[in-house]
C-alpha cells in the first residue's frame, strides 16, 4: 500500500460494511453451542431412554427437558441422531 | 477487552477456551469474511450466510491446527475462498462449469482490495473513537449526514468537515506506518 488520498481511503472503508448482526452473534455463540451440544450427546450416551426420545422426535425431546437451542445446534443433533 | 490484542494473542486466548476472545476474533474478521463471499464471489445472501457460519465453525474446530497464530488472517481468507468455491460448484451442478472457471470466480482484484481494506479497518481502531465512529457510519454503514447528525448530536454542516479531518488523521497514521516499514497485516 503506498498512496492514500481521501478518495482511496473512503473506498477502502466502504469496502468492509458490517456483516449482519445475527450472523455475527451466531458465530460468536459457537463455543456455547458446542458446550450444549456436547452436554446433550453425553446425556444421550448415558441415558438410553433420552436417546430414544431424541431419535423419535428431536425437537419435542429437547423441549421436554428445557433446552432452547439455536437452529445450527438442532441441525447438528439431527444429523448425529439420525444415523444412530 | 481493554487493549487490542494482536491476532496472535487473540488466537492463543481462543485456543485456551476464552469465550470473550472468540467473540472478539469473530468481530475482528466478520466484515472480511462477509465481504469476500458477497463482493469477490457474489454469493446470494443465503449462500453467504451458510459460508459465514461454516468458516467460523471450522475455524473454531481447527484452531489447534493453525501452525502460526499470526497467520489467522490469511488462513480465514483461504478458508472463505475455498468454501465459496465449493458453494459455487454445488450450485453449478446443473450447469457444468470448469474448475478453472470456478477458481477465477473470486476476482483477484477484489480480493486484493479487501485485503487492503482490512488493513485500513484495523488502522481505524487506532484513531480516536469519535473519528472511527463517524468514518464507519458514513462510509461503511452508508448512513446519511442527517442520521449521523441526529445520533451524534452534531449539526449536519459539521459532519463533512469532521469526516475530512478524520480521514486526514487516518491517512497520517497509515503513511506513518509505511514510512516505518511494510504494513504487517496483523495487529
Q: Can you describe this structure?
A:
The complex is a heterodimer of chains A (84) and B (187). Chain A is mainly alpha-helical. Chain A has helices at residues 6-14, 21-28, 30-46, 48-56, 58-64, 71-82. Chain A has one domain. The N and C termini of chain A lie far apart (54 Å). By secondary structure, chain B is mainly α. Chain B folds into two domains: 1-105, Rna Polymerase Sigma Factor, Chain: A (Orthogonal Bundle); 126-187, Arc Repressor Mutant, subunit A (Orthogonal Bundle), CATH 1.10.10. Helices cover 73% and strands 0% of the residues of chain B. In chain B, helix 2 (19-40) packs across helix 4. Chain A binds chain B through residues 1-2, 4-6, 9-20, 23-24, 26-28, 30-32, 34, 72, and chain B through 17, 19, 22-23, 26-27, 30-35, 39, 49, 52-53, 56-57, 60, 113-114, 116-121, 124, 135-136, 139-142, 164, 167-168, 170-171, 174-175, 178, 183.
Topology (SSEs and partners):
The complex is a heterodimer of chains A (84) and B (187).
Chain A: H1 6-14, H2 21-28, H3 30-46, H4 48-56, H5 58-64, H6 71-82
Helix pairs in contact in A: 3-4, 3-6, 4-5
Chain B: H1 7-15, H2 19-40, H3 45-62, H4 72-91, H5 99-103, H6 108-124, H7 129-140, H8 145-152, H9 156-180
Helix pairs in contact in B: 1-2, 2-3, 2-4, 2-6, 3-4, 7-9, 8-9
Query: How does the major sheet of chain A shape up?
Result: none
**Range of strand content of chain A:** under 5%
Order of helices and strands of chain B: HHHHHHHHH
Q: Give the integer mean of the pLDDT values of chain B.
A: 87
Residue share in helix of chain A: over 70%
What's a concise summary of this model?
The complex is a heterodimer of chains A (84) and B (187). With 84 residues, chain A is mainly α.
